[in-house]
Amino acid sequence: MSGTNFDEPLLESTTNRIEALTDGIFAIAMTLLVFNLHLSAPKSTGPVNSDLLGLLVGHSHIFVNFIISFLLLAVFWVIHHQQSRFIKRTDRKHIWLNVFMLMFVCLMPFSVSLIGDYHHDRIANLFFGLNIFILGMLFYWNWHYATQNHRLISPNMDPERIALGKRRTAVTPVVSLLAVFLALVHPHLSTYTYLLIPIILSHPYLRPSSE
Questions:
Q1: What is the C-alpha to C-alpha distance for residues 71 and 54, in angstroms, rounded to an integer?
Q2: 10: in domain
Q3: Counting Cβ atoms within 10 Å, is residue 171 exposed (0-12), middle (13-18) or buried (19+)?
Q4: Which of 156, 169, 166, 171 lies closest to 88 in space, CA to CA?
Q5: Tens digits of per-residue pLDDT, 43-53?
Q6: pTM for this one?
Q7: Does any domain span residue 141?
Q8: Is residue 165 situated within a structural domain?
Q9: CB-based burial of residue 9 (10 Å sphere; 0-12 exposed, 13-18 middle, 19+ buried)?
Q10: pLDDT single digits (tens) 87-104
């Protein structure tokens, strides 16, 4: 029977549509984070300026969560951009890996809203930490799958560059596991642990020599 065989691997497909979908979803998720910035102002007869300043200070954790989560999404986007430079083609498994990655990117605004509304709650911080951990593992598997036996990359790609990519993508799940552990002991402190991710990734050991 003639026609398209949907069971055939898509080894000759380019990654253009994956990259376009990824950019769009990251842009939406990063924009939605701002909707978590809200102040619940009680009625007061005191000076307006004093009340507003007190509200802003009292809700400082929401702004901290926004900054950290925006930076984390930016890190994930940069990693995906760097991986896309070397992944020359795609197949069905690779496409679905990216779909699941984007699903957890979409979940980020909800995770951030949880730690904003329940920032001292262990469950909220565990949920956020698991969201980051799963995202980090999916990014690691994405690179591992694409580079294994040079499946979706150039056959001439330097093995050291492949190893560097694995080291970089391993940082996020390792740090997020630490944050999950801290969430059980000190939920509020666990949020700041994620700042280690961009700091560690900026170390020369984890940066390509060409950067």
A1: 26
A2: no
A3: buried
A4: 156
A5: 554 544 557 66
A6: 0.83
A7: yes
A8: yes
A9: exposed
A10: 989 999 999 999 999 999
